[in-house]
């Protein structure tokens, strides 16, 4: 059995930017196997818009391809931007990963939070240099939570896109409304609008597919948990109490969560309990994002999902992060029960 609490992995600067590609859950997604909800035509329109964006951007005058690395920087013209704005579970990450698989040249896929961690760890100049030769950046869950990441995002895009890197972003907030309800966004409208002007925006409507036709899941009962546990190979299984996990996550930089889970194929988090400390709660949210993206089997016991995050947090600046986390926890629990 794997002991997560004994792990505190480190990362070199090169490792921070290596392997920025679709995670295991999205390795096999393609435009062809995206299943848009027929009741919401904007989902099919989003797929068509993204395919057209890639196709239209590929060939340049003189026969150069945008998503193929160029030999001379003078061949590069300003990068283009496409922004998919929509709620949880409408397939935005599926489309983003599909774009990664369909595009040519040097590209990277990461969450917005991962990008902020990279910039914070490397510094702005080194982060820009790390991505300067990329043809395409795919940024999932783009959101401005505070003045710091607003400034970093505006500076990063402002240095990278004019030099020729194109960007596709997904978000739960239209670009002109980024930051609203999180901080005094009115004081940063110039930077927010500067970010927004770099993108063509497409709205993606629809309900959360993770809850489509199902009721939100709740943690496993003791009997279900024991049955799930018996099905897991012990060599790749990790079991940890929620409280102990939260304490450990405070000691591990979030950029290292993927490495923390290296070699784990199944994770059980027992005794879920409410998290009144927002710093603890946000670390747990990012951990669940990694767990979900990696496609690991997971089981949870303890308190109902609805009690994990305070009401003030679930309606505050980070409300969308918490809602996404609950949606993903519910899907993981449905998958765990499907194993039984």
Overview of this protein structure:
Mean pLDDT is 85; it is low at 58-74. The protein has helices at residues 13-17, 41-58, 92-102, 112-122, 124-131, 147-160, 189-196, 222-230, 242-249, 257-260, 278-293, 311-314, 319-339, and strands spanning 81-86, 107-111, 136-140, 166-171, 200-204, 237-241, 266-272, 297-302. With 340 residues, the protein is of the alpha/beta class. The strands form two sheets. Strands 2-3-4-1-5 form a five-stranded parallel β-sheet. Strands 6-7-8 form a three-stranded parallel β-sheet. It is globular and about 60 Å long.
Structural class of the helices, strands and pairings? Answer: alpha/beta
Q: Strand tally, please?
A: 8
Number of helices: 13
Shape: globular
| Rg | 20 Å
Q: Indicate the mean pLDDT.
A: 85
The main sheet comes to: 5 strands, parallel
* N-C termini distance: 21 Å
Which consecutive residue ranges, at least 5 long each, have pLDDT under 50?
58-74
| Beta strand % | 5-15%
| CATH-derived topology of the largest domain | Rossmann fold
Whole-number total of structural domains? 2
CATH superfamily of the largest domain: P-loop containing nucleotide triphosphate hydrolases
**What's the SSE pattern?**
HHEHEHHEHEHEHEHHEHEHH
Task: Please sum up the structure shown.
The protein has 340 residues and is of the alpha/beta class. It is built from 13 helices and eight strands.
What characteristics describe this protein?
340 residues, alpha/beta, Rossmann fold, three-stranded parallel β-sheet, 13 helices
